[in-house]
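Support request, please re-run this one:
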Amino acid sequence: QLQLVESGGGLVQPGGSLRLSCAASGFTFHYSAVGWFRQAPGKEREGVSSISSLGISTNYADSVKGRFTISRDNAKNTVYLQMNSLKPEDTAIYYCAASSQSRATMRETDFGSWGQGTQVTVSS
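Re-run finished. Output below.
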């Protein structure tokens, strides 16, 4: 079982950047794919990005492809989401989650451990 804590959210203007961090505790972190999900008010939670256990494979939602970059540092038990060229529609609570799989899955049901979320607001 993994405990995940997100940080790095905040208020940013359109076109700006933020880097989210997901710090994990647990011995199985290096075996786990990690995903980022987001949920905006009145909308269902959606997958944003995921990364395989070794960081070799990544997956991105079409809406963020080319703007967001997921990475991980297994020595630090941390996964990052670099968000550039932010748009108002990126406004949401962002969650990181760990999967029992090692593949870069984007299927929500594959993730069993979830963080508490961090708010990202993109507004002028």
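The two ends are 40 Å apart (CA to CA). The chain has no helices and eleven strands.
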